[in-house]
Amino acid sequence: MEKTQKSEYEIQSEKIASRMARIKRKIVVMSGKGGVGKTTVSVNLAFALSEMGCKVGILDADIHGPNVAKMLGCTDSSLSSPDGTTLIPVEAKNGIKVMSLAFALPDPDDAIIWRGAMKMGVIRQFLGDTEWGDLDYLIIDTPPGTGDEQLTVVQSIDSLTGAIIVTTPQSVAILDSRRSVTFARKCNIPIIGVIENMSGLKCPNCGFEIPIFGKNGGKNMCLEMNVPFLGAVPMEVDLMESEDKGEEWVKEEAHASAKALMDIAIKLEKTDACTTAREMNLPKEGCSPSSCSSCHLDCPSKKNK
Ligand SMILES: Nc1ncnc2c1ncn2[C@@H]1O[C@H](COP(=O)(O)OP(=O)(O)O)[C@@H](O)[C@H]1O
Ligand SMILES: [Mg+2]
């Protein structure tokens, strides 16, 4: 018998697809470990890209720890939906459009105690019901790991541009980051690149560099796993303080971390790291079912095996 009625899930998927079609690049920011700087990277890339004239949105998909609003300095905003269905994103500095569960919490100390299905529901609602409009970038900040939130994002956005993986240099973080690489490959998500955050701390007095979490762990992992390296961001106390106040950091050019984050944004926008990541989805020259273990992703020839 012919199926006539669409399920609610299918209707929502169509809504998401039409919203996402108006956004040129959709980037998911992931990490294996918590506290390595995903939100820092998401927010600073948003600031940097908006400084370059791009129209940018951020979806905070970290349901249990939504920090995007705090780092963008818009915690006083709340969710609005004039027609009861469409959600209006909050506008942060530089016109950055933000959607986060933080805007729906009556008290910032409230804890979200939700299972997977609830999280999936709210992320899909934020993707499909938010009036994102025409954007150059939608940056999706996620919690650590490879669970419900990441899976919902990659399964809901067919046209996802790729993933940025954030790590710190020490082995414990790298071990978890390797899992994020594997996750992206298994889900057929192009890996735009890895950012090594908290890569050394320079003493502000004498300039001596203290490798608090070691150095080059992220860069070496990229070589080993054959994924692009986007850059290293050093630790700076001023960066953390600026984020606590919800201020824009990337304009502080005299600071090495601000410059590093701006350079990564330039790489994304100007040198087309995103397109390169997409191309990695295609089989490489000479790739055949027997040799395609060298491909970055499950390339078509691998699928035909
Ligand atoms: N390069 C850095 N230098 C100094 N502090 C940093 C740096 N990167 C992140 N932080 C701080 O570390 C904390 C954790 O960063 P955050 O971006 O929230 O990590 P995650 O989103 O991965 O949990 C925040 O207080 C942030 O301001
Ligand atoms: Mg975070």
At a glance:
The protein starts with 7 loop residues before the first helix and ends with a helix. The chain is α/β, with parallel strands linked by helices and 305 residues long.
Q: Could you describe the 3D structure shown?
A:
The protein is α/β, with parallel strands linked by helices and about 300 residues long. Strands 1, 2, 3, 4, 5, 6, 7, 8 and 9 form a nine-stranded mixed β-sheet that branches. Strand 7 and strand 8 form a beta hairpin. The longest helix is centred in the middle third of the chain and has 16 residues. The radius of gyration is 19 Å and the shape is globular. The C terminus is likely disordered. The site of adenosine-5'-diphosphate (ADP) has 18 residues, from helix 2, strand 7, strand 9 and helix 8.
Task: Give the terminus-to-terminus CA distance.
Answer: 34 Å
Helical fraction: 25-40%
Question: Strand tally, please?
Answer: 9
User: Which ligands are bound?
Assistant: adenosine-5'-diphosphate, magnesium ion
Q: Architecture in CATH?
A: 3-Layer(aba) Sandwich
- Total helices: the number is 11
Question: Helix-strand pattern, N to C?
Answer: HEHEHEEHEHEHEEHEHHHH
Give the integer mean of the pLDDT values. 90
CATH top level assignment: Alpha Beta
Strand content: 15-25%
